[in-house]
Structure formats: structure tokens, C-alpha cells
Amino acid sequence: QAVPAGSHVRLNLQTGDREAKLPDSENGKSDTREERRRKRLGKVDVDSNSFTSQELKKALAKMKENEKAERKVSSLFLKQCTVRKKFRPIEQLKEEFEKLNVKMETDYEIMVKLIGKFNSSASTLDEKVAALYDLEYYVHQV
């Protein structure tokens, strides 16, 4: 849609519509440069003969691309919100497990303990072998 020069154009994020508004003028007088230029040039010609079919097709294609991009952004945002609702932060989980007297350890903490067990002189050969097998599992995940 053609709009006069100097109009205020915005995208309404709630409805997805583009809105245009003529600038406010005090006492009915227009004193902005754009409004003076608009008076000098006259109204915008929206006669169908003034646009070629190629120009209209290009404009329509741009509008469709913009709509697709806007939909992708909004759908991505909605997906992120739903994913965040499904999962909780690790700090919150740790607090809840502490209330249940269950200690939750990260993979890093477990690997540090296994390395300590392997390097310990008090560990038996079977414990060191078991530590190596467990370490292999955690390292494979990383």
C-alpha cells in the first residue's frame, strides 16, 4: 500500500499488522519539511496504470518474504518459551534435591572423583580398573 511521504509507519506486534498515520500537527498547520514537500508534490498517485506488473510482483514477493521472516521469528520465540517452561535451571534442581537429602553431581564432579580414586595409593587394582572404565564412559560423552 502506498502511503504519503512523512507518515509514521509501525508494525503492531500484537496483531502483526502494519499501521500508518499522518504526523500530528498543531493548530492544523504543518511545519515539517516532509509535510511541505508533500504539499508541493501533491498526493501520491496510486493509479493502477502508474505501476508495472513487474513492480507489483516484486513488491508482493518482498511482502511475502517479510511475512515469512516474521513468522519464523515469532514461532522460534514461542518454541523457546515452551522449552523453558518444560525445563528448570540446574540451581533450582540442586536445591530441590538437597531438600530430599539427595546429592546431585555433575559429570565433571564425578570425573574428578574417579581420577582421584585412580591416583590414590589406597585404591586396589580392581578399584582403579573400575575407575578407568567409568572414566571411559564419561569421557566418551564429552
TrEMBL record:
Residues 16-35 have a biased composition (Basic and acidic residues). It comes from the Eukaryota. One of its GO terms (molecular function) is adenyl-nucleotide exchange factor activity. This is SIL1 factor. One of its GO terms (cellular component) is endoplasmic reticulum. InterPro entries: Hsp70_NEF-Inhibitors. GO terms for biological process: protein transport. Keywords: Endoplasmic reticulum, Protein transport, Transport. Transmembrane segments: none annotated. Residues 1-44 are annotated as: Disordered.
